[in-house]
Amino acid sequence: MVDAERRLLANALLDPSNQRFVLLSDSCIPLFNFTTTYSYLVNSNLSYIGSFDDKRKSGRGRYNPQMSPNITIQDWRKGSQWFEVNRDLALEIVAEQNYYSLFKEYCHPPCYNDEHYLPTLVNILYGGLNSNRTITHVDWSRGGPHPRKYAASEITEELLNSIRFGSTECVYNDNTTPMCVLFARKFTPATLNPLLMFAPSLYGST
Fold first, then answer.
1. Fewest Cβ atoms closer than 10 Å to its Cβ: which of 1, 14, 131, 204?
2. Checking DSSP bridges between strand 183-184 and strand 136-137, what pairing results, if any?
3. pLDDT value for 201
4. Where does residue 174 fall: left (phi above 0), alpha (psi -120 to 50 degrees), or beta otherwise?
5. Beta carbons of 159 and 107 less than 8 angstroms apart
6. What is the widest separation between alpha-carbon atoms in the chain?
7. Spatial separation of the C-alpha atoms in residues 127 and 123, rounded to whole Å
8. Residue 117 and residue 130: Cα distance in Å, rounded?
């Protein structure tokens, strides 16, 4: 997965007009129209990679001591594989080899590169460039190894607005805001028609 992420970034970097890079899945939807999303990202001072110290078995329990001293247990981080980075950070990610090699050699199941490499790398080297949060909403409240998967019958304007503005406030360019996520997952293909029905009232004309 990390190899694929790096190749996608490298290819997108070939176009000098690309300044922000977002990795999404096929079950993601936008929560705002293009103009709002573009403005939020282009005007942001930071990138958006979730990175936190998970002391559970599914976090620190995946750390391999053979990564030390380059990566210590205190450095180890976990986060979502769905990220957004600016051009400067994307260039650093593609060029970086030392930590990438360590992960390739020592991070194998139950360690998963896509959940630990970028969060750990950014924590060690580029903390000042990162907001330390994701902009993709995922609902883990039901427990289990996989997040909630939304069905067509669940799609309402109230649900979508609760996702758009329902999280706790976050920091954007040194100011607090209720607008913390721009995308959401997991939405099944069957949700397309109800999503399109609510699109005009949620997204407007732009």
1. 14
2. parallel
3. 86
4. left
5. no
6. 54
7. 5
8. 14
Q: What angle do CA 203, 87, 60 make, to 5 degrees?
A: 90
Q: Which long-range contacts (CB under 8 A, 24 or more apart) does 187-194 make?
A: 187/27, 187/28, 187/29, 187/149, 187/150, 188/27, 188/149, 188/150, 188/151, 188/152, 190/151, 190/152, 191/29, 191/150, 191/151, 191/152, 191/154, 191/155, 193/152, 194/152, 194/155
101-153 confidence digits (pLDDT tens): 999 999 999 999 999 999 999 999 999 999 999 999 999 888 777 889 999 99
SS3 184: strand
| pTM across the whole model | 0.90
Question: Hey, is 194 helix, strand or coil?
Answer: helix
Tokens found for residue 44? 């942001």
What's the CA gap between 139 and 163, in Å, rounded?
9
